[in-house]
Specification:
37% of the residues lie in helices and 15% in strands. By secondary structure, it is an alpha/beta fold. The N and C termini lie far apart (39 Å). The strands form two sheets. Strands 1-2-5-6-7-8-9-10 form an eight-stranded mixed beta sheet.
């Protein structure tokens, strides 16, 4: 599979990971045998975020049961989940002194509740170890039994529940063949109805039009989603979907303005924006 060399425009710049804070986060994650989406998905902001002592913990292993063509996370048959993983995430959060923690996961269609109980247990463990830490969950679609699984997550009362729509509706078949656009919208609608802020993220650069983007943002607003991230897709593996277009920062600003006009309350839109980028800032921390 391997990484791919990218011929990217001048306005996209990556920071080389370094510094004591970066090393502290990396060593803490390693000491607890944890994963971060920052590393597994090849996030371009890993250096910046680790240097600020922030990371998005990825529970339930590092292998996803889906086959999305844009994602750098490993795909295939995952190992059994580690039962004490929520405890170790909470330990890492406490050791790093985090005031805002983001927890996500690979998609585990092989688990009856999609891993919802592990998300809830992780929130509860963080609350015990770090009572003042606010928690954001970036959850999959819990396809095996979404309403019941999502309710388990809602009952844990995280401060924000994020679920990425990922790509515009017309690209699901070619990019997310095991995903379900309408199911994702229904999940966000249920989150919004619970009075927990609903957040979502969109990647662009696959060949979608501005009308495609607008239509997807309208669907998100109608579902009750009021927090949005929009970022540039970057091909991260050789067999990944190729980048069709690199959007200029001015175009990201236009998308941000569009989103606010449609009814979003918080929008972060830019070439290197990812779903948990500056998550605490978006949540008003």
């Amino acid at each position: 599979m391997g990484r791919v060399k990218r011929n990217i425009p001048d306005w996209i710049r990556f920071k080389i990971p370094s510094g004591a804070a970066y090393r502290k986060v990396a060593s803490t994650v390693k000491a607890h045998s944890l994963h971060t989406v920052c590393v597994e998905a090849g996030c371009p902001n890993v250096g910046e975020c680790f240097a600020c002592k922030t990371a998005t913990f990825m529970i339930m292993g590092d292998t996803c049961t889906r086959n999305c063509r844009y994602c750098a996370v490993g795909q295939g048959t995952p190992k059994p989940v580690v039962g004490d993983e929520p405890y170790h995430v909470a330990e890492a959060v406490a050791e790093l002194g985090l005031k805002y923690a983001v927890v996500t996961s690979v998609t585990r269609d092989d688990i009856a509740d999609g891993g919802a109980s592990l998300f809830a247990d992780t929130v509860e463990c963080i609350r015990i170890k770090s009572p003042r830490c606010r928690v954001e969950l970036l959850v999959p679609d819990f396809k095996p039994d979404m309403p019941r699984s999502l309710q388990r997550v809602i009952d844990a009362q995280p401060e924000v529940i994020n679920h990425n729509i990922e790509v515009v509706k017309g690209f699901y078949d070619k990019l997310r063949p095991l995903g379900n656009y309408n199911l994702s919208l229904e999940l966000l609608k249920l989150v919004a109805g619970s009075n927990i802020p609903a957040k979502s993220g969109l990647m662009i650069g696959f060949g979608e039009s501005m009308d495609d983007i607008r239509n997807t943002l309208e669907d998100l607003v109608h579902a009750g989603c009021r927090m949005l991230t929009v970022g540039q897709y970057l091909q991260s593996r050789r067999d990944g979907f190729p980048v069709v277009k690199y959007y200029h920062p001015d175009e990201f600003n236009q998308i941000s303005e569009m989103a606010y006009n449609l009814g979003f309350d918080q929008v972060m839109s830019g070439p290197l924006v990812r779903s948990s980028y500056h998550a605490a800032e978006m949540a008003g921390e």
